[in-house]
Amino acid sequence: MHFTSERRLDDAVLEREFTLGGVPGILWTPASASASVSAPVPLVLIGPPPLGLRKSYPRLADRARHAAADGFAAATIELPECGDRPRRPATEQVRADLRRALEAGEPVTDEIIDALILPLVDTSVPEWQTALDALLSLPEIGGPVGYAGGVISIGTRLAAVEPRISAAVLFAGSFVPRAMYEEARRVTIPLHVMLQWDDEGNDRQAALELFDAFGSREKTLHANMGGHTGVPRSAGEEAARFLARHLK
């Protein structure tokens, strides 16, 4: 992990940008963590939307500030083929097929969803695990570890295969390959799933079926009226309380 910049946010949070194996990321730690390495803090992995870290930065930093207020470090990494990371021609073609289907009001086929999401999950999850190795090696970060964000398929697999993650907040709002339902049955950690009921880009029934498939004994579905970007502040606060219960 190579840190490339450092600055303070509101004098309460230390923000450091880094690269790890060519993957950009950002780490936020509360002032208490940077001042004393004798009491390492829990960590929240923030799954970004597929817009690139620069475009998503305001909402990511806001979530990191809330995590720091609870005494947690927070970190995020750039998704494959987002931001300045190189694109594959095959992915660009699938994205074009998706746009055409949506603009024409046609159903998005399983073939398009699989071609778009499964390679993203296959690449992203090992990168998250590598980042977690590096983050937990820092003296100011200990555990436990939580995950919060979307793409929901990335969070699902990460929750299924990564034993260091103790609890997860998952955002329903992205396409779900059929193969993910079987993976969801292997998830056993506490889950808090957020769903926007009128999300124009989300298959509500698929989100409900995925929630039903999760194998966790403790799982909560928090649904609100409104579109993809209309998540009420109260929903974010409830998700933060969920993580606080399981990481403190």
Summarize the SSE layout with pairings.
Blueprint: E1 2-9, E2 13-20, E3 23-30, H1 31-35, E4 41-47, H2 53-69, E5 73-77, H3 89-103, H4 110-136, E6 141-149, H5 152-161, E7 165-172, H6 179-184, E8 191-196, H7 204-213, E9 219-224, H8 233-247
Parallel strand pairs: 4-5, 4-6, 6-7, 7-8, 8-9
Antiparallel strand pairs: 1-2, 2-3, 3-5
Helix pairs in contact: 3-4, 4-5
**Low-pLDDT regions:** none
Q: What is the helix tally? A: 8
CATH class: Alpha Beta
Distance between the termini: 26 Å
The topology string of helices and strands comes to: EEEHEHEHHEHEHEHEH
Which radius of gyration do the C-alpha atoms yield?
Answer: 18 Å
Strand order of the largest sheet: 1-2-3-5-4-6-7-8-9
Provide the CATH superfamily: Alpha/Beta hydrolase fold, catalytic domain
CATH topology: Rossmann fold
Main pleated sheet:
9 strands, mixed
Helix content: 40-55%
Q: Give the tally of structural domains.
A: 1
User: How many strand units?
Assistant: 9
> What percent of residues are in strands?
25-35%
**Judging from the principal axes of the Cα atoms, what is the shape?**
globular
SS content category: alpha/beta
Give the name of the CATH architecture. Answer: 3-Layer(aba) Sandwich
Describe this structure in words.
The protein is an alpha/beta fold and 248 residues long. The protein has one domain: Rossmann fold (3-Layer(aba) Sandwich), CATH 3.40.50.1820. Helices cover 42% and strands 26% of the residues. The chain contains 8 helices and 9 strands. The protein has helices at 31-35, 53-69, 89-103, 110-136, 152-161, 179-184, 204-213, 233-247, and strands at residues 2-9, 13-20, 23-30, 41-47, 73-77, 141-149, 165-172, 191-196, 219-224. The protein has a 9-stranded mixed beta sheet with strand order 1-2-3-5-4-6-7-8-9, sandwiched between helices. It is globular, with a radius of gyration of 18 Å.
